[in-house]
Amino acid sequence: MPAKPSSFFFVYPNKMRILGIILILGAILIFIYRMTSFNIVDLSGASFPVAFGLILIFFSKEKDSDERTVYLKFKALALGVPLAAVIVMLINYYYNFAGYSIETDSWYSISAFEYLSLALILALGAFHYLKYKE
Amino acid sequence: MQNTIKVERAKMELTQADLAEKVGVSRQTINSIEKGRFVPSTLLALKIAHVFGAKVDHIFSLEPEDWDEG
Questions:
Q1: What is the ipTM of this complex?
Q2: Min CA distance, A5 vs chain B (Å)?
Q3: Which spans are transmembrane here (chain A) (predicted)?
Q4: What domains are defined for chain B?
Q5: What is the pLDDT of residues A39-53, one digit of tens each?
Q6: Given its phi and psi angles, is residue B24 left (phi above 0), alpha (psi -120 to 50 degrees) or beta?
Q7: Residue of B nearest to A134 (CA)
């Protein structure tokens, strides 16, 4: 059997998108439940399933996937990843580092999963915009 | 890169959707290729040429500025 060309390569099958959506919805429901019941606002805890769900959504094959989809997804990632890095740096600098404590020598910083979630949300938005525009 | 897909489609009375179905891509992809916004892979270019019963270099041709791109 001939090898599939790399331009048709997707990491996950289409059905994994559903698992991604379930993960995100679950994370949102748990986040709201903890916030309303226990007054706990835990963005870091919610960001792991959200980031994982977004990975499954972004890198899964779509129903109308072809080589242009791969090209647009790469272009969207090229926009989303550095833009998220800039946003995270600005939030850390102007907001999080303001809480720096000299006694404990510690401050809150945005986690890797929060960064990944932001980068993939931006990339997904860019992908759908490019798909519509181009 | 220039292409004559629109002309060849008109000759064969094929819509973008018809051609897309024959080569296994979306209609939007054919539209992007026709307008020169997306350069297809060798495999897709060969498939498109095959549908029209022509050679690839009859459908796609290089422009001088294509040599300037890295």
A1: 0.82
A2: 8
A3: 16-34, 40-60, 72-95, 107-130
A4: 2-62 (1.10.260.40)
A5: 888 777 888 999 999
A6: left
A7: B32
